[in-house]
Amino acid sequence: MCILIFVGTNGETYFNTAALVSCVQNFPKSRGPVVGILKGFAGLGGAILTQIYAVIHSPDHASLIFMIAVGPAMVIIALMFIIRPVGGHRQIRPSDGLSFSFIYSICLLLASYLMGVMLVEDLIDVSHNVVIIFTAILFILLIIPIVIPISLSFSQERRVPAEEALVLSESQKQDPENSEQDDGHEIIFSEVEEEKPKEVDLLPALERQKRIAQLQVKLAQAAAEGAVRIKRRRGPHRGEDFTLLQALKKADFWLMFFSLLLGSGSGLTVIDNLGQMSQSLGSNNTHVFVSLISIWNFLGRIGGGYFSEIIVRDNAYPRHAAMAVAQVVMAIGHFFFAMGWPGAMYIGTLLVGLGYGAHWAIVPAAASELFGLKNFGALYNFLTLANPAGSLVFSGLIASSIYDWEAEKQAQQHNDGQLNLASVLTSFLNMDEPLKCEGAICFFLTSLIMSGLCIIAAVLSMILVYRTKTVYAQMYGKSRT
């Protein structure tokens, strides 16, 4: 079983990485929406497969395992020949904003539909024919987004070659030697980054470009005359392509890693212990909260990508500002769990699910912007190590230890209040059964600790925002002007 779980989980990670790397490279100007949609469907996949399995209606659990093993692989093999790299002007289309808005609408409709279907199937004993109808509608919602690439292929494919030829001919007329001089200008520009004063980055965009151009000309003239020796830079700057070893030497990378560890680790702690949390507060509908946090997790991924893209596109501000907001939202959700008020489980599940999901839309997009796309797969998967590391520490050590401690205290108080032969005999017979804790006290301290960790994570995110403000202003400021 350990070998099978090892192969299965790593296979899922591989497909996840392949999809993210391909789409982020094909849509470099829409990284937030792309990552949000992909990670959102990764979180919603379990609910979709569960609904498909409900149609099979087989009591044999082996059929479920067989479907999960064969079904996704068949889909991937069928579609892998269609996916291809998109280059040049085709990466950016005027209709991209409208297309992503349409897909966002379908995602929200799909999440709402799945949540409604799960509640109906849970509360009402529906017939098998009704389940088939529900699943058919689900397939229709899943297929609708394919209308976008089909319509774009037919409407714009014929116009692209003529426009491309016109653009190329105009550029060649204006600068016929451009291709021969590109390499030299790239080298000089990278050396300008080393030579320019730091206060240049604080100037307005037009003045900054003027200063850099003047310095570039001076360095080129000096290099041609042999009067000065231009200092070669020792490594890439933010926004360029880093290797994993180069990124590991940067404080920005570790700020991102520990912010993700604290934020996603605290969210995963809630997901791991959601059953015990609901039972301790007297709720027997554990599966309802599991389904709800899956839906809110999906919406958090979709919303995190959309919200962070607004911050980047409209304000040229670092994407991690959205991460700090999500972590503050999670801190409030953990506080509701700690208080144990009536309805706190629903509010806490909503807030923690949204914040946890937003992490997985914001972090990959920010990592690709700060450390480049060339080695994005290695960088992203190293960052994802923060998730199991946080779960191991927070859930495996903190949450479980505090829960067992509170359960032992309650058992001790119960035994002290009923010191008779029957209670001693009952406790002796139930020695092998795990102790259960009841009341808000079971996760009070754990939730307060998780809330504090989310606040620390938000502070780390804001430090990263402060450090990368000029980078995002250079990367996205031009599109605003």
Describe what this molecule looks like in 3D.
InterPro entries: MFS_trans_sf (IPR036259), NFD4_C (IPR056555), Nodulin-like (IPR010658). Belongs to the major facilitator superfamily. Phosphate:H(+) symporter (TC 2.A.1.9) family. It is a multi-pass membrane protein. The chain crosses the membrane at residues 37-56, 62-86, 98-119, 131-152, 253-271, 286-308, 320-339, 345-367, 379-403, 443-466. With 481 residues, the protein is mostly helical. The chain has helices at residues 2-26, 31-56, 61-79, 96-123, 128-143, 147-156, 159-174, 178-195, 205-225, 244-248, 251-272, 274-280, 286-315, 320-339, 344-371, 376-383, 386-417, 421-429, 444-480. The chain has a domain at 243-415 and 435-474: MFS general substrate transporter like domains (Growth Hormone, Chain: A), CATH 1.20.1250. The protein is built from 19 helices and no strands. The longest helix is centred in the last third of the chain and has 37 residues, at 444-480. It is globular, with a radius of gyration of 27 Å.
